[in-house]
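In response to reviewer comment 3 from the previous cycle, which asked for concrete evidence that the modeling workflow produces usable outputs, we include below a single protein chain processed end to end. The sequence was submitted unchanged, and the resulting structure tokens are shown without manual editing.
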Amino acid sequence: MNGAHDCGGMHGFGPIAPEPDEPVFHHDWERRAFALITATPTLWNSDEDRYACESQLQAAYLTNSYYHNWIVALERMLVKHQMVSADELRDGKTRAPATPDLKAISPEQVEAFVQSHRLPAPQPNSDPQFAVGSFVQTRNMHPHGHTRLPRYARSAIGQIARINGAQRYPDTAAHSEAAQCDACASQWVYSVAFSARELWGGEAPASDYVHLDLWEDYLGPTDTKTMVETT
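The workflow returned the following structure tokens.
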């Protein structure tokens, strides 16, 4: 979807000013939020979680801090999958029995739990459609659901730089139930090189390129045989 999260190439946000010696967590609650989200036995996949986060109203998404947005997504998923109710979240009081097949884990068990849930994506049933060096054009799409194709790279011509292997297709996985997710179709993922001028016009530096990891469904063939550079 074209939400506030998809702001690559947009103006008006001011310069990026890295904080010297920036800590991993600025506040104790951020540390606790990270631990809570990491250790929560989930009934959903990472793409569904991303969609819950980016579906906020734009003003809320841009105002919230990084970990605040994480917490918003977690709360939405807990309610959606009936692990807690909205009333329970509001006042912190349990009203219904906990989901019977979910068990709390100790801090010592977190790392093993996370590693055991990183399952490889199933391989596609066909060979990659595009070869390294091929020129492709991205789709012009504006879906209401989740996608990993940025707005600034739509309907753009680029060149396949590398085949990254197969991964679950996020546009489908974000809207699938957990029980169906293991069967979600996987697609080949490519590292695609775009000239900065193809993406942002003649004012962009001629020597700059952007590499994006894109799923096969985002790409189509093109008759172009050279990298497009606007002068």
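The chain has a mean pLDDT of 86. We consider this sufficient to address the reviewer's concern, and the full set will be provided in the supplementary archive.
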